[in-house]
Here is the input.
Amino acid sequence: MSSMLKTRGLTRSFGGLLAVNDVDFEVEQGEIHAILGPNGAGKSTLINLLSGEIPPTRGEIEYRGSAIQGKKAHQVARLGIGRSHQKTNIFPRLSCLQNCQLAARIHHGGVIGSWRSRRRAREVDERALAALDTCGLVTRAHTVSSGMSYGEQRQLQIAMVLATQPQLMLLDEPMAGMGREETDQVADLLKRLSRDYTIVLIEHDMDSVFRLADRITVMVDGCVLESGDTESIRASETVRDVYLGRHDNSEDSRPNSDSVDIGNGSSNSEVTS
Amino acid sequence: MLHRYPKRVTVLLLAGLALLIAYPAWGPAVFGESSAFFMEKLTLMLIFALFAVSLDLLVGILGLVSLGHALFFGLGAYTLAMASPDFSAASLWWMLPLVMLVSGLVAAIVGLLVLRTKGIFFIMTTLAFGQMLFYTVSTSSMTGGTDGVFIMFRPSLAMGETPLIDLDNPLTFFYFCLALLVAVYLILRALTRSHFGQVLDGIHDNEHRMQALGYATTGYKLIAFVVSAMIAGVAGMLAAMQYGFANPAQLGWHHSGEVLMMVILGGMGTIFGPILGAFAYELLLYFYEHLTNHWPILMGLTIIVAVLVLPKGIAGLLLDPPGRQASLLGRLGGGKDNLAKGRQTSASDSDGKSVGKSAGEVSS
Here is the structure.
């Protein structure tokens, strides 16, 4: 397997807070790479850095061999890195199909190419429908998205990412706030997608993460605590101490960062290096 | 988001158009002696309608409230006044492109700066740019200071030496303005229905998401801003032709506020609404002015009541007739939320295409 995305010394500070601190992170082609960590660990900030929504303070991001740090969000998206947001982020006044069409049209030559041509319109429709089909929403194609259930809206969000034809998908808590059944549905969907796409996944639902992920990176306090395949993370003492141990004790799948004893900084850096 | 209007809107618009075209037939019978005066009033309404439509592209479609749109209106007026020769008529073949070029260029520069902001900051920066030009123009001797510049000869539209149409004739000029308004309306309708229009809608709803999808939203916004400014510039040019002068008041923030009221009164984001708004505003103004010297009080009250009772303007009445709306009290209390809820439940009751259509009708 070859590396698709790689960061070196990636750092982002907000004032005095180091939200992402010197992160070396690597995603290999074709894998599902999950990022775990308590709230405030910097997972979402890392995704925002990768997708170009915020510029890094320091460090490099390499995507398929070329540096992409400093590129804007729309440029990154056009390179084939699609992302979904933690909050449901769809266009509520549009139907499912229209939402996906909007996403599918980004490759049609910018502002000038945005006037319609018949052939392009067909391509766009096909791509949009295919994306809806993959996400099981094809029967809802003409439903206005604001009228759908929360779970369906979350799935639509994934369909929109698909419609942009990404190579790498950054999914920020795609199952957040879902019931058991819907969570399983989305997990199945991600499993299917992983055949064709490389996925970076932030998720709090441990069962899904350990079922889906090929590799896991655990973040604490902006740093990478440990990174490795699912089994080694499951077996890791350090990870269990700061994160999983707490999880086992409570039904709540969202660990409270306050309740997690992160330990002192020196032990973190020991593990990282 | 509204890709097809209900039939009654088309019928109403066509009826209004027919009524305007037929003005020479019924005008004298209704207004008698002052028929010519009312035609000039109507001409001005058409010009303001054009101006209001241009602002709707920003305020309604893109969701950017500008308090400096008169900048481009005044720019059109002054471009014509400054470029017109003193002792002969300018050619409209030159003036129209020149006005569009000047307002478009200025809009591109101003747009690059103001489009970096949103909400209240966009209002303030557009206001600032408008006032910058206002004070420059009203204190410079080149532009005639507060007196403005007179246009001695109305530009002519000729093919070589032979005049095509006589714009000095009030009726011809009335038809000319009407034709321009219809053309601009059709262009903007096509634009908003195109993919470009959908992207603008997307930016209105969630610009951040559009960027994440891969749209360079600034470029889209800038193009819309420039197009809007060009139309406003043309409206300003027509106004200067009608008045026979360019005046600093045409680019002051009062004027920007006035056109904003027309857009709100008519219904934002519908393109046809602001046309109705411009007519309604000017008619109200006319009556109030005759009623009392304190007409701004009446006008202000009217606008407040209109916003409370018709949050979607006159266009909202047509797109979403009273029978299907929430009760007046409900809307006064809950406002948008109630309507939004109503829309959501109506959408989830059934599914399929019909829902897409009916909900599309509701959300303008």
Remarks:
- The beta strands of chain B are 149-150, 157-159, 162-165, 245-246.
- DSSP finds 16 helices and four strands in chain B.
